[in-house]
């Protein structure tokens, strides 16, 4: 077990707790998703996972309400997180390591979603990010405010945000890819005849899907 490098736990309804992680010193990737009854996760041991670069934990709505508390692996590169017991609006600044460049924030259907502006999430967005994913925030209308400090951002993914209308103008010139999925109010604006086209047409990779 200590030699494990990858662990994936998806759709385990009988999983109620993860007791220990600290012995998995060679672990590079940990993914936990759709585990509705997982109540306990030893996040205080994450700093001991010095090889861990990829962490996914989402749609685990029973997870201890104290998580996340700001404990992270020192070499964390990619994090996708959300849909936990504690609503994202209640998360404190997380003291992410400087190595974190790829962050995804997820809002599950069961989570109370009162995030309407990206400025409400800005304290969770470190300036080191080159990739940002915003997924399933039903009330989010804009990412034009609260992201100005993301001067290294190159890749932006927006998915499942039906009220989203505004992109971050200040960051568009530096983007290398823009992915928009199931954001109907943005679809027209980002089409070749839309109001945003002149500001995004330089982006090498643009992908816009409705469903």
UniProtKB/TrEMBL annotation:
- Organism superkingdom: Eukaryota
Q: Name one GO biological process term.
A: defense response
| Keywords on record | Plant defense
Q: Which InterPro entries match?
A: LRR_dom_sf
Q: By its UniProt entry, which Gene3D superfamilies does this protein fall under? A: Ribonuclease Inhibitor
TM helices/strands, residue ranges: none
PANTHER family in the cross-refs: NB-ARC DOMAIN DISEASE RESISTANCE PROTEIN (PTHR36766:SF61), PLANT BROAD-SPECTRUM MILDEW RESISTANCE PROTEIN RPW8 (PTHR36766)
- What protein does this entry describe? Leucine-rich repeat domain superfamily
């Amino acid at each position: 077990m200590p030699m494990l490098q990858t662990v994936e736990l998806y759709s385990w309804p009988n999983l109620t707790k993860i007791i220990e992680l600290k012995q998995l010193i060679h672990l590079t990737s940990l993914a936990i998703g759709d585990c509705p009854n997982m109540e306990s996760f030893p996040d205080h041991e994450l700093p001991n996972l010095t090889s861990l670069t990829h962490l996914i934990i989402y749609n685990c709505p029973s997870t201890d309400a104290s998580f996340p508390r700001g404990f992270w692996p020192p070499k964390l590169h990619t994090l996708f997180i959300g849909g936990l017991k504690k609503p994202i609006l209640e998360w404190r600044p997380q003291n992410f390591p400087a190595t974190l460049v790829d962050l995804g924030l997820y809002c599950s259907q069961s989570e109370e979603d009162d995030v309407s502006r990206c400025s409400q999430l800005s304290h969770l967005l470190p300036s080191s990010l080159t990739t940002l994913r915003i997924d399933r925030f039903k009330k989010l209308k804009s990412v034009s405010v609260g992201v100005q400090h993301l001067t290294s951002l190159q890749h932006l993914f927006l998915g499942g945000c039906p009220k989203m209308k505004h992109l971050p103008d200040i960051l568009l010139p530096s983007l290398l890819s823009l992915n928009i999925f199931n954001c109907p109010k943005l679809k027209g604006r980002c089409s070749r005849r839309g109001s945003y086209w002149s500001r995004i047409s330089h982006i090498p990779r643009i992908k816009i899907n409705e469903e």
